[in-house]
Amino acid sequence: KNEVEQSPQNLTAQEGEFITINCSYSVGISALHWLQQHPGGGIVSLFMLSSGKKKHGRLIATINIQEKHSSLHITASHPRDSAVYICAATMDSNYQLIWGAGTKLIIKP
Amino acid sequence: SAVISQKPSRDICQRGTSLTIQCQVDSQVTMMFWYRQQPGQSLTLIATANQGSEATYESGFVIDKFPISRPNLTFSTLTVSNMSPEDSSIYLCGGGGADYGYTFGSGTRLTVV
Q1: Cβ pair B107:A42 closer than 8 A
Q2: Do A97 and B101 touch (CB under 8 A)?
Q3: CB neighbours of A70 closer than 8 A, spacing ≥ 6?
Q4: What is the DSSP string of A14-52?
Q5: Alpha carbon B30 to its chain's center
Q6: Residue A64, CA atoms < 13 Å, CB-side half-sphere
């Protein structure tokens, strides 16, 4: 069983829809990261969370430490949001990231 | 947050040759990492690049195949040696730390023919 699990694996939605991607983890972590990977491979860090909720533009990330669960929401989705979204956890014991498998999001116009 | 410049962005290489990928960070970072993403797979950590000493490799990766340098806190290289088609992947560097987050290079898409 992976220590960081994401769902869904693939998600296709229409422009304007509210998007939710979920991430659960089974180990003690010091932070949870949400990242965006575009088709060329480059990765952009969207959020780093250790508690509560963060918002940046149309993106919202939440984390529930007790339930070991985090969600990434996209409001008013747009085709340019199409990418792979990855959650990754920083373990308590070291700086390394444990990566989820990613969610491939396609937003259709 | 720091910005990482990674190059080349892509390359097509002949089998048996080697390719060196460079990552330059615009500020000093505690940790630098090298990842591989094979087609359809998630990112896998190759090694942690240590400043001034040998890199720490993950299981399944060896220095002879993936030599890494990190001469200072802002620069690192990964070499993919004696390449075969199985080495065709995206290679990604990352840097940062648990306290202030991570930043990543733009990735290198390697195709070995």
Answers
A1: yes
A2: no
A3: A22, A23, A24, A25, A32, A34, A49, A61, A62, A63, A64, A87
A4: ETT--EEEEEEE-S-EEEEEEEEE-TTS-EEEEEEESSE
A5: 16
A6: 8
Please check whether residue A2 is in contact with residue A97, taking contact to mean a CB–CB distance below 8 angstroms: no
Q: What is the pLDDT along chain A (109 residues), one digit of tens a residue?
A: 578 999 999 999 999 999 999 999 987 788 899 999 887 667 888 998 889 999 999 999 999 999 999 999 999 999 999 999 999 988 766 666 788 889 999 999 9
Q: How far is A37 from chain B (nearest CA, A)?
A: 9
Cα gap B60→B55, rounded to integer Å: 14
DSSP state of B29: -
CB contact under 8 A, B94 and A48: no
Distance CA A84, CA B2 (A): 22
Token representation of residue B3: 């910005």
Residue-wise burial string across B2-12, b where 16 or more C-beta atoms lie within 10 A, e elsewhere: bebebeeeeee
Distance, CA of B107 to CA of B92 (rounded, Å): 5
Q: Which amino acid is at B82?
A: N
Question: What end-to-end distance do the CA atoms of chain B give, in Å?
Answer: 37
**CA atoms within 13 Å, Cβ hemisphere of B55:** 28
